[in-house]
Amino acid sequence: PHQLELAMHVNAGEDVFCVAGTNMGKTLVLQSGPIAAQARGEKGIALMIVPTKVLVEQQADVASRRGLRARAINQDTVRNARLVGRDLFKELEHGDDIRMAVMTPSMLNESDMKTLLRRPQFINSVRWLSIDEAHLVGQEGIFKSGYLSLLNMRVRLNSSVVWVAAT
Fold it and tell me: Which residues contact 17 (CB under 8 A, 6 or more apart)?
């Protein structure tokens, strides 16, 4: 029931903060906006922030299985794509569908992502920012510097962007 309730808020354009235990459906809540928009034939970009490379790839895989054009964007996937002539950032930027970039917070500060975040057309396409393990924002430890970069995203993105945080 909490998944449906929170997904309805996300789809109404409301920011959501979800606190739930492991395996309680946070991922579906984090992805609910893009999933519903795709079902309606809409366009847009979702940025999903997770703490580790392993989770980046897992979340991108889950989103892909749900029919979203999701890309795992971390140092490894960017490098590997370039070796075969692909540019994950261009793939994220272009298209007429729902696109999801799953990345660690540190990737927001990489030069290619910073370039995208300065392009008005890209900024205007971003509709959702989902943050997994949101309790790490401001918490001391290995993830602190990356998650602190999320504090600047509110001013970098349009006010219409729906924020979905889970922990």
Answer: 134, 165, 166
Q: Which helix (H) or strand (E) holds 102?
A: strand 98-103
pLDDT in tens, 103-155: 988 888 889 999 999 999 999 999 999 988 876 666 665 565 666 677 788 88
Q: Which helix (H) or strand (E) holds 116?
A: helix 111-116
Q: Contact 130/123 with Cβ under 8 angstroms?
A: no
CA distance 103 to 110: 11
Helical (H) or strand (E) element with 17: strand 16-18
pTM summary value:
0.89
Q: Which two tokens stand for residue 74?
A: 């971390």
Q: Please, is 33 exposed, middle or buried when counting C-beta atoms within 10 Å of its C-beta (0-12, 13-18, 19+)?
A: buried
Ramachandran assignment for 129, one of left (phi > 0), alpha (psi -120 to 50 degrees), beta (any other): beta
Q: At residue 132, what are phi and psi to the nearest 5 degrees?
A: -90, 145
Contact 132, 166 (CB under 8 A): yes
Q: How far is CA 20 from CA 25, 29, 63, 122, in A?
A: 8, 11, 20, 32
